[in-house]
Amino acid sequence: MEVQSPRRLNAATIPSEPRFASHLAEFIARFGDSSSAAGTPRLFFAPGRVNLMGAHLDYNGGPVMPMAIDRGTFLVLRPRRDGLVTIATSMDDEQTTFSLSVLLATKAPKAEERWWDYSVGVLLGLARCAELDPGRGFDLYYGGDLPVGAGLSSSASVSLVTAVALNAHFGLDMSVDQAIDAALFAEREFVGVMCGIMDPFAVGFASPGHLLLLNCKDRSWQHVGLDGEKYMVGIIDTLVRRKLAKGEFNLRVEQCAAAYQALAPFAPDAEHLSEVPLAVFEAHERDLDPAVAKRARHVLEETSRTFEARDALQLGDVAAFGCAMFDAHDSLRDHFEVSIDELNTIVEFAKSHDAVLGGRLTGAGFGGCVAVILKAGQQDAFAAAMCTAYEQAHGQTPKIAFYKGSPGLGEVVV
Ligand code: GLA
Question: What residues flank ligand 1, with Cβ below 6 Å?
Answer without folding.
Answer: 51, 55-56, 58-59, 195-196, 198-199, 363-364
